[in-house]
Amino acid sequence: MATFSELLTRGIFLRCPVCGKGKLFRSAFGMHKQCPVCHFTYEREEGYFTSAIAIDLVVSELIVTAIALPLAANPHIPIVLALVWCIPLAVLLPIIFYRHSRGLWMSMDHFLHPALGSGFSHQPPSSEPQRPFDGPQK
C-alpha cells in the first residue's frame, strides 16, 4: 500500500488513489465513474464526496481569511478595496479548488479505508446504457 504522502501527491495531481495512473476527471467538472486503468470505482457510496465539499469550503475560506484579516486590520487600506479583493476570492476559490478537494478526499479516505478487493470492476465501464432484464428470451 502507498504511504500517506504518496496518496496525497496522487490526490493533488488528480490521479487514482489505488494505482496512481488513472485520471480522476474527464473534463473540467466531469469525473470518471471508475479509474480508466485499474477500474476502481471512485464514488464508493451515495454521498461519498460530501467530505470533499467540506474540505473545499474550509480550505478556501481559510485562504480568504488569511488575506482578508491583514487587509482589514491595516488602517491605510480602504475597506472597499479589501472587499473588492476578498468577495471574488470567496466565490472563485471553492470553484478552483473543487477538483483537488475531491482528489485529496479520495486519497485520505483510501489511506484510512483501503479498497482491498472491493470497489473494483473487472470490466471497463461501458458507454452504452444497460437494458433492463426483460425475462428469459423466447
Description:
- Helices cover 49% and strands 0% of the residues.
- The chain is built from three helices and no strands.
- It is elongated.
- With 138 residues, it is mainly α.
- The chain has helices at 4-12, 50-73, 79-112.
> What is the residue-averaged pLDDT?
85
Q: How many beta-strand segments?
A: 0
Radius of gyration: 20 Å
Overall spatial form:
elongated
| Sequence of secondary-structure elements | HHH
Largest sheet data: none
Report the structural category: mainly alpha
| Share of helix, binned | 40-55%
C-alpha end-to-end distance: 49 Å
Number of helices: 3
- Beta-strand percent range: under 5%
Low-pLDDT stretches = none
In short:
The chain is an all-alpha fold and 138 residues long.
Chart the SSEs and their pairings.
Layout lengths: L3 H9 L37 H24 L5 H34 L26
Describe this protein with a few key phrases:
0% strand, elongated, 49% helix, 3 helices, 138 residues, mainly alpha
